[in-house]
Amino acid sequence: MDRKINRFVWIVFCLTAWCVFGQGKRLKGDDYFFQYSYQRAIASYEQDQAKGTVLNLQQLLNLADSYYKTNAYEKAAGLYFDIYSKDTLITDLQFNKMLQSFSVMANYEQVDSLLMEKSAAFPKELMENAEFNISLFQQPDQKQELEYEIFNARSNTPQSDFSPAFYGDQVLFSSGRTQDKKRRNAISEEGYLNIYRANILEDGQLDAAQKFRDIPNSDYHTATPSFAQGLNTVFYVASNMENGELVFNEYGKNALSINKLKMGGRPQLLFRDLSTSFYYPFYEEKTGRLYFAADFEEGYGGTDLYYVATNNGQIMSAPVNLGPRINSPGNEISPFIFENSLYFASDVFYGLGGMDIYQSNIEGRDTFSIPVNLGPGINSVDDDFGMVIRNNGEGLLGYFASNRKGGQGSDDVYGFKVAEKPGIKTITLKGEVLKAIDDSQSIDNAVVRLLDSDGTVLKETLSDEQGRYRLEIPWREEIVVESTKNRFSTFSQKLGTSEIEAAAADDFTINIALYDDLVEEKEGQTVIKLKKFFFGRGRSALVPEITTELDKVVQFVKSFPAAQLRIETYTDSRGGSSTNFRLTQARSDVIKKYLIEQGVPASNILYSVGYGEQKILNNCTNGVYCLEVLHKRNQRSLIVVLNNNLLFK
Length: 649
Hints:
By secondary structure, this protein is of the alpha+beta class. The protein is 23% helix and 30% strand. The protein is built from 14 helices and 35 strands.
């Protein structure tokens, strides 16, 4: 569990029995840690160490986590690294915290070094996401920062207020405020979470909050609401209970379930797993999907984002993980979809610090673009999460939660106005690399790269085993797409704005030709593979049958521009020897002339030679009677590749 998740489960864990994580004596610091009293946990653990008590592995990790959660990043980084350096297994979530601690300290070399050590164990999507976002912050001109008008909501209190959700002309949110001292935690001075509502005023401010009484009163948590207008239903999380009492799993854990309430009806339990907590449900009316965060063991890190298919809010499928493009070794929470973009919060190591809000475009049924950090305009070095947004006049109005400095409580709801949709415009190019001769054959390990108009490489990747590739970069008005592989041709195409938009809307197929498919061995030489063609008897004029084949030579040179050619033309033994030499030279010259006219550089054609009847392939020499078909075997033109052995060295 981490940061924002702690906002509404700290009391749950105060009721959770001690789980044995390793051998060793239970310490007072353990109790403080599991009560989320991190400063007290640090003081207690450090006092025990000063007395000579040896902390076990789990207690050391608890201490490192406590440093991390109290922003003592230098101590956190040092302890995490010490544990990691001793070849002790730490979770991906703790590895993420170690990286983030070094990042906050601006020790980027250590981050890069540690990340490279473990890169093979992480999904490639994580590495791409990190590279993209780090690059974005290093190039301010690409961030396209918007100007946000951010204001602290007047509905906030000194307790935690977070998880805003639109409810008509009101906002629902979660709060730990309570007047009942019996329902407060002695350490945090906050009560069990309840859902409150506040009116949206004309300027976007929220007026004084009132408890949302449509949800029946509970002695325990009800939190993180989401209102589906089409269903007239509120989705929310609540403590697992039976007959009004908390329900625990075999380890003494009380988790959180997802519930729904159709206005005017009774609450209905949707999702419960005594060993798994669910957070931040969000119902997308367009698809009927219910999104949420959960800490399933098979996730990518801490909490991951999932969805289930529903029929009018009734669950119809098992949870589907949004995958490594969205989920990371850290925690992902608070999904929200607006105009085909997924907004969510993550504490992944390449952010600004704590939880940051990210935006990812929905590209297909289950595919997403690289999540882009919304940047310092809305994110801070502290925790920022739970963003919702909607159109408002000529701009947009939204709300999010943050524990940034200057607020009224541990978490506050903030409103914001902005002229345009948050997030940057990107180019996503994806598709297949296929053989030019046989497009049923895909090509793996082909280099695919995007370049700017000056030829600078912006991004490159390799096609996978199915020939698939995917590249994403910040938006540009013009790009060049290139692709190649050893012994294959080079694909190159310039795309302008409209062409980029068309290519990004669907798969962009790349065809490259295998050199060995285009050449063959003839007469002890490597020649371009062509269908045999014939000039008219005694003539050197080109006819369509010939130009069709010569166009293949034009394409070959475009594909392999370093190729050096020799044009050779031969005739049969009929006619005078000198006449045949002149005829074949004229034919070679007219072939060269045509190739140059079609764009083949003259420098690629080193020779054009007419050999007359010098190289007869059969017995049809002077004076020997032969059938026409046998004479025609000696009439031929060859396009020889002179540097065949040097092209791919």
